[in-house]
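sorry for the late reply, my laptop died twice this morning and i had to redo everyting from scratch. anyway the thing you sent over, i finally got around to it. pasting the sequence first so we're on the same page, its 486 residues, then the predicted structure underneath. double check i copied it right bc i was rushing
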Amino acid sequence: MKRISSILYFFSIFFLFFFLFSPLKIYPCRGNMAWRFLPIEIARKEYARIEAELKKERELLRFLVLPSEIQKWIKFYQNPVFRPGSPGSWEEKSVDCFSIGYYFGQYMMWYVGTPKSLNCQIGVATSSDGIHWTKYAGNPVIRLGPKGSWDESILICQSVIYDQEEKVFKMWYIGGTPEGVFSIGLATSPDGFHWTKYPGNPVLRVTEPWEGTVMEAFTVLKTREGYKIWYGGNDLSRDKAAIGYATSPDGINWVKHPGNPIFIPDSPNRWDGYSVSNPDVVFHDGIYHMWYKGWRKKGGNAWIGHATSFDGINWQRDPENPVLLTSSLPGGWDNYEVYRPRVIIGEFIESGPYFTIDRLWYSGRNYSLVAQIGVAYQLRRAPQERKIRPRFQNVNQDEMRIAIDLQSEKNYLISYFSPWMTKIRLTIYSNEGRVVKNLLSEYQLPGYYEVTWNRLDNRGRSVKPGLYFVELASEYAIISKEIIIK
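ok and here's the structure:
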């Protein structure tokens, strides 16, 4: 047993030393997918070379099992939820670089499929739950342009919105030539399936030194001020990337921010100290949230982080970063890098429970050059619950709890905890046992809640001074607490 432990320890040390300190001879799209940004014939040779090289590293991983990390986001146990197509299909090697949204009662996902020829194109899939997907029979829906066009060789990455004012889907996407020149174009669709490319494409090009070779993975939002885009600029020769920002009145004519890049790598010793890219930006409750990909060295593992901003330009990193890590399991489908985050933030229900579930879809890649798509979840507590929880110490599974505070001259704040999924009734009684006010009668999940009573009865009349009782009742228990109104 000691001999086996010694062998595992040796391989662990060897692997960590090799991985952290030896230069990886792979190119970034960063990383091992930079072939996408090379002239197509060179890309095919590079793909074959990297595939053979990573096979050696894949063999090394068989000897090592690293401990799991506790993460802010919890990965779905049946990941990946979206996989490449069958052999010979237009998406047989990989599916990644996607956009996702909830439109007209269903989830819609536009994604990049990689065929054997490596001439990537864009398809669409739908889902009722964000987990089980049906690929559109007419895929790919955005196809390569004709010979001589700016997007004749490859299509990579996109950002899709539904314009409520114009009642149309809009997609900004990256296209490339056989020589490896990449730009961003625009397409529109009435339904998300049938697309028309803008005749004036491309609408955005690489123009600044920091943008390197390509403006990659990006997010477009439409706001009251117009369109905004956050994009990664990547110097492929050095695997150096940062995030820039531009605005447009129409989604066609763009003005880049003079202070670009607006989000740069952290200090060199941090997990995202070498490069940052792939911004997914969501505006929620007056704050811009950005999930992004970061890595610490050229060709190294990529993780996902989170940052916030009040203006979309000046960003503050989340102290809990990174929020999503690569898998620690040998052979794991996402053990090389996690990237291209796309987040849909859950909404709180006013009447409770005071938590919601956010969803993060992400691309994952292993050491076999296979990219697939998974999903992770985050349970987020509302400010109301964070305020209520400290009031009820040592709760258990067998009893309800209640607390009452005079919120103002006329309003009482009634806080309570229930450990069961049950029908909750909250009622105000007079000293004589007469029903004064029915505050609540509904099924609720276990959790912490609060209700305000404005001292009015069921007829809308102010109650008289005196002794009253607040009764909290469920299918399993009843408790009450008195209120004295002066």
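DSSP finds three helices and 28 strands in the chain.
thats about all i looked at so far, will dig more tmrw
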